[in-house]
Amino acid sequence: MRHVADNLASSLSFEYVIEAPEDGEWGVKTENNWTGMIGMIYNNRSDVALGPLALTENRLPVVKFGGIVMVDYLTILTGYLSRAEPSAFGALMTFDWTVWLTVVASISTISLLSLLFERNSTPEKVSNLDKCMERFYHYFETYLKAMLAESATEMPQTNALRVLSQMWWMGAIVLMNAFTGHMKAMMMVKPEPTRIDSMAMLAKKDMPVFLWKGTSYETRVKNSTSPHDKKVYSLVEKYHGAMSIDDMFCKRNMRQVIRGQGAIVSDIVVLKYQMALNCREVMSVGNYYIGTDDFYPHTLSLAFHNNFPESVRKEMDKRVRWMVELGLINQWLYSHYDNLDECAAMAKAGEPPEALDLEKIQSALLVWFIGVLLSILLMFVESGRTIICCFFCYSLGKKLQQMLLPCRRKRQSHSKQAKKPTPSGDRPKILVAVSPYIDDYYRTST
């Protein structure tokens, strides 16, 4: 609009001074006053508001609008990442979690069915609970190995088990080929990002929505009777998204928008201008996307003070109309969109294929790591079972020893009393006859 002001001043030979409103707003009615540029005219601080301002019914009693400068409309600005962020469970998520749950349930069911067939043919193999659990684990492992194209350790002995095993093998081959093909497609084909084209789609999201505070856009969305618009404005209030234009297009908000974590509702002219300013900086992260659904079409024009000279206003309207008919205003607007066209061409060209790095195959590495941790855990469980058994036996032995110790001591006391020597006075005397030689020997030795 600076070009419009310069052309009007040069053709009508007047000078002008530009003054911006302190609040940075365009004009919203408060209780007894107006904000923004409309407030400057209402409070006799300005004669003309370049804007251009939207012609709304509540502004008509306050200012006089000139000729139409352009017709604009509101739309939604969002974004999407240039590359899909790799997931740690990306390989497993080739199938939905419901598919994996169905596979586990199917293996368990067919293992129980095989156990039933074996019980019918050879009941001695499943005569008790321990044998049943052992055979169930065997069949579960067998059918799980079939998913990985690994043969069974033993052949089925009955026709029922053979048919069941063959049917499972056929299903496993089809399922795993589908898994492999879908994984290749996911790695080679770039997934289509989620795009927001309308207020109805935006209302289903739970993310920050930014609106230009103090404009007719905020008033229109706030006072709308549409349930989708009401939901969107509730998101604006929830995340405090009503703000000035400088705050609305700050780097923090634009990072959220480019990642698809936020949205801006504004007119197409302002959105394209802001996109052109920093599209090159964010192309490594993602791309902007403008919704296809346009709403709230409105005419934009200059606003004049009610006491502004009518003759001068008509001359200014005439020259503004000439600029519009000659396409000068559109030319001045598009001169600020050069970077936007270059960014769009670069985004359309795409990126060359890249080699897979560790970040993209982290899901396979994570599966290996989980397997290692699980095997180590099982080793500790098995070792702990032996240690627990030894500890249990040791504790049981100690308890038995404590229980049997009083009985043992009692038996020992009884045996000592039975073996206790009698006093010498009470001992019986026995006379032994010996030869004289032995008698002399005992006498000399003692």
UniProtKB/TrEMBL annotation:
<feature type="transmembrane region" description="Helical">
    <location>
        <begin position="62"/>
        <end position="82"/>
    </location>
</feature>
<keyword id="KW-0406">Ion transport</keyword>
<keyword id="KW-1003">Cell membrane</keyword>
<feature type="transmembrane region" description="Helical">
    <location>
        <begin position="94"/>
        <end position="117"/>
    </location>
</feature>
<dbReference type="InterPro" id="IPR052192">
    <property type="entry name" value="Insect_Ionotropic_Sensory_Rcpt"/>
</dbReference>
<dbReference type="Pfam" id="PF00060">
    <property type="entry name" value="Lig_chan"/>
</dbReference>
<keyword id="KW-0812">Transmembrane</keyword>
<comment type="similarity">
    <text>Belongs to the glutamate-gated ion channel (TC 1.A.10.1) family.</text>
</comment>
<feature type="region of interest" description="Disordered">
    <location>
        <begin position="411"/>
        <end position="432"/>
    </location>
</feature>
<keyword id="KW-0813">Transport</keyword>
<feature type="transmembrane region" description="Helical">
    <location>
        <begin position="364"/>
        <end position="381"/>
    </location>
</feature>
<keyword id="KW-1071">Ligand-gated ion channel</keyword>
<keyword id="KW-1133">Transmembrane helix</keyword>
<protein>
    <submittedName>
        <fullName>Ligand-gated ionic channel-like</fullName>
    </submittedName>
</protein>
<dbReference type="InterPro" id="IPR001320">
    <property type="entry name" value="Iontro_rcpt_C"/>
</dbReference>
<keyword id="KW-0472">Membrane</keyword>
<dbReference type="GO" id="GO:0005886">
    <property type="term" value="C:plasma membrane"/>
</dbReference>
<dbReference type="GO" id="GO:0050906">
    <property type="term" value="P:detection of stimulus involved in sensory perception"/>
</dbReference>
<keyword id="KW-0325">Glycoprotein</keyword>
<feature type="transmembrane region" description="Helical">
    <location>
        <begin position="163"/>
        <end position="180"/>
    </location>
</feature>
<keyword id="KW-0675">Receptor</keyword>
<dbReference type="GO" id="GO:0015276">
    <property type="term" value="F:ligand-gated monoatomic ion channel activity"/>
</dbReference>
<feature type="domain" description="Ionotropic glutamate receptor L-glutamate and glycine-binding">
    <location>
        <begin position="5"/>
        <end position="77"/>
    </location>
</feature>
<keyword id="KW-0407">Ion channel</keyword>
<dbReference type="Pfam" id="PF10613">
    <property type="entry name" value="Lig_chan-Glu_bd"/>
</dbReference>
<feature type="domain" description="Ionotropic glutamate receptor C-terminal">
    <location>
        <begin position="97"/>
        <end position="372"/>
    </location>
</feature>
<dbReference type="InterPro" id="IPR019594">
    <property type="entry name" value="Glu/Gly-bd"/>
</dbReference>
